[in-house]
# Entry
Amino acid sequence: MAHTGKIARLPKDIREIVNKRLDDGHTGADIANWLNEQPQVKAVMDSRFAGEPISSVNIYAWKGGGFLDWKRASGASLGRSGLAALLNRINEIKRMPTQDLGNDLALLLSVSLAMECDRLDAIDDGDERMKTLTAALDAFAQWRGAELDGGKVNLIRQKLEDLKQAAEKRLLDNAPKPKRTPAEQQARIRQILGTE
# Structure
C-alpha cells in the first residue's frame, strides 16, 4: 500500500530512522520534535505541506501504517536469513558422526515455528491468525509427541498450551485498531483540545 502522509514523503533514510526510533519505543512527540529540527524534513514540509510541521498525530498515523509495513518487511528479510541458517545447520548435522537427530530437528522446527509466528502479524483476520497458529502448534506437538515418551509429551503439550495462550493474549493485545479518516482524526483532536 502506498502511503501519502507527511512521514511517507520524507527521504528513505529519515523514514528508516523514524522506524527504528518507533521500534525502540520513542514517543511520537520526541520523534516529531527531532524531525522538525532536521533541514531535510523542513524542506519537504515547506515544499509539500506549506511549512506545517510534523506532529505526534502524524507519527501515530505512520505507526499504524508505514511502520507496520517496515516491520513486516524486516521480518521477511530475517526469515530468509533464518532459513539460510537452518539449511547450514542441517548440513552440519549430516556431517556429524553421531548425533541426536530428533533433538536437532526439534530445534530447527522450533526456530521455524517462531518465524511462522512472526509472520502471523501479516494476517489481518484475527480468526485466520488463530487458526494458522493453532494448526502450527498442533502439527509441532504431533511430530514431537511421536518422538518422546509419555511424560515428556505431556510436558511439551503443557508448554505448547502456555505458548498458545500467550500468543492468543498477544493477538488480542495487538489487534489492529480501527483507522480514523482524516476528518475523524481532526474532530478527535479538536475534542481532546476542547476547541469544538
